[in-house]
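User: My advisor asked me to double-check a structure prediction for DUF1275 domain-containing protein before group meeting. I don't want to rely on an old file, so could you generate it fresh from this sequence?
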Amino acid sequence: MAPPLVSPRIRTVTPPFPTITRTSTPCHWRVHKSPSSRLTALHATASKQRQFLHKKRLAILFAFLTGWADYLLFIKYRFFSTMMTGNSMWMAAALVESRFRDVAFYITVIASYIAGVATFRRAELEFREKALNGFLAPIVSAFLIWSDVLTWRDNTCRWIPALLLSFAWGIINSVGSEVTGNLIFVVTGAMTRISNMLVDRLSSTAGNIPIPKEGILMSFSVILGFILGAGWSVFLNHVAPQMKAFGSFAAMGVIYGGLFLWLDREELGAWWLKKNGKLLKVDVSTHLKWPKRTLHHIMSCKQPSSDVKE
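Assistant: Sure, here is a fresh prediction for DUF1275 domain-containing protein from the sequence you gave:
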């Protein structure tokens, strides 16, 4: 005789989908998001805010260092290693005036910058996660310090330091653009973006497009960082003129090297962010500094819900 059939145990699981109820308004439904979905959205918003703040601070720092370097490069070497527009102009002027030694100088400086950008790209493809701490950080730090040592030993030395600095800034600008998503060394570009945003907002032809908060804040961050860096460079040249001969670029080399290592901290193990062998996680309410009642209100059913047409 066959054993009696036993019905399987059925577990009732509350689905994670939002519940829908009828509203008083005809032909409308109100969607009540589940607490788990609201928590996920809250974490996603907080994560996005943290990422933007992180990028904005990095943009200010990179722009600050660029402003610091630009003034020093001009008064010390009469060329720029952070951008090639001025070098191209001076190369054209030297060519017209038949100063072929200067033409060769600017051509090699530009070529060195391009080689630095290519090195960054190659390292990114070849070494991937280990590119910053294992390859690029030592090169940038060594080249900036080496340029200072050469001019300290011989203040007439210009060509080799120029090549070292241009190569290093080819890497630096590439890293800055990669981690911030912006050209942190082009102040004119930031001003152009701000102008376009303002015109699009005021122009009815453009549709009065709202100004993107993140875009305009990032552009202002680049401009502010650059101006502060240039002002710091002028101030430092007045109070400590000996650093023009030796010290400034070496200090920048240490800062950039440390910054690259910090950007790659997870690849290095992030031991300072670990507790009991695990990475620390930032609590949303603590990070955003919300009162408990505010967080409770957000997580409660009193949160405004969206209406969806039937």
